[in-house]
């Protein structure tokens, strides 16, 4: 398993797609932050991170899997290894690690965008969930008896 993991890490690290995916995510977050006023709900939603992150992970993951078939190296790997599941598990672990890195970097970038673009926003007025839910419903919690 460790051999499969190191091989898959080597292949993933030498692709251009993961770095491009990170740059696209940060660029899209910046566009979302600059195109509309920065509100607490925009910060809570990470400037659209969930919608972009899902697309980037699917594209990078599909490219990572298809690359093996495109270069016909998957046949060699499957014939050589007795535990075929270890190859797919290693790919899944590498993609999970990439997803965790993207999430952490998007959280840091969200904090940076909030500090730079909206330093007047503070979390002491209301909690994150209360702010998000109140804007989602269209009015503040003090106006409802929910």
Structure overview:
Helix 1 (2-13) packs across helix 6 (84-117) and helix 4 (49-70) runs antiparallel to helix 6. The longest helix has 34 residues, at 84-117. It contains 7 helices and no strands. The model has no long low-confidence stretch (mean pLDDT 81). The protein is elongated and about 60 Å long. It has helices at 2-13, 17-35, 40-44, 49-70, 73-80, 84-117, 128-137. With 146 residues, the chain is mainly α.
Largest sheet: none
Quote the distance from N terminus to C terminus: 53 Å
The sequence of SSEs as H and E is: HHHHHHH
Strand % is: under 5%
How would you sum up this structure in a few lines?
75% of the residues lie in helices and 0% in strands. It is an all-alpha fold and 146 residues long.
Tags for this model:
elongated; mainly alpha; single chain; 146 residues
List the topology elements.
Blueprint: H1 2-13, H2 17-35, H3 40-44, H4 49-70, H5 73-80, H6 84-117, H7 128-137
Helix pairs in contact: 1-6, 2-4, 2-6, 4-6
């Amino acid at each position: 398993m460790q051999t499969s993991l190191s091989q898959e890490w080597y292949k993933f690290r030498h692709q251009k797609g993961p770095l491009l995916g990170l740059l696209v995510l940060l660029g899209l977050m910046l566009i979302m932050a600059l195109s509309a006023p920065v509100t607490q709900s925009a910060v809570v939603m990470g400037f659209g991170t969930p919608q972009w992150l899902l697309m980037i992970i699917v594209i990078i993951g599909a490219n990572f899997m298809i690359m093996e078939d495109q270069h016909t190296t998957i046949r060699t790997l499957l014939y050589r290894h007795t535990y075929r599941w270890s190859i797919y598990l290693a790919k899944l672990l590498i993609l999970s690690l990439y997803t965790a890195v993207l999430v952490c970097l998007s959280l840091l970038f969200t904090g940076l965008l909030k500090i730079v673009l909206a330093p007047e926003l503070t979390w002491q007025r209301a909690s994150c969930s209360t702010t998000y839910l109140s804007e989602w419903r269209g009015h503040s919690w003090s106006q409802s008896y929910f």
